[in-house]
Write a structure and sequence with these properties.
This protein is an all-alpha fold and 116 residues long. It has helices at residues 2-37, 41-51, 53-60, 64-77, 80-115. Helix 4 (64-77) packs antiparallel against helix 5 (80-115).
Amino acid sequence: MVILLSNFLTSFIQNFCISFGVVIGASIFSGIGAIITGHPPLRSMINLSSSIKVWAMAIALGGTFSSFEVIDKGLFEGEIKTILKQIIYIFAALLGANAGYTLIKLIQRCGDIWGN
């Protein structure tokens, strides 16, 4: 039981951190690209971070097909525990992606405060 909880908690934390890292990393490199091309970096970072959240979730879950296979197995073979785990993993990935987006928005707000 302890090993299962440990694996579950490990997967939960990894899904959160992976989706968070995808949003933050992509936004930072988008800002660097905007600086190189002479565009406003913060606007580029905000636009990208809002549109990449869904992809960050898919990356954190290991692709969308494996998630659907697990849900399919849970529905048609009666494994409710598997469905609940997958829903929690999706929730963790969603939290991570939104936390990354919120951090980028916080950077924008701090820039507005400090800039004036």
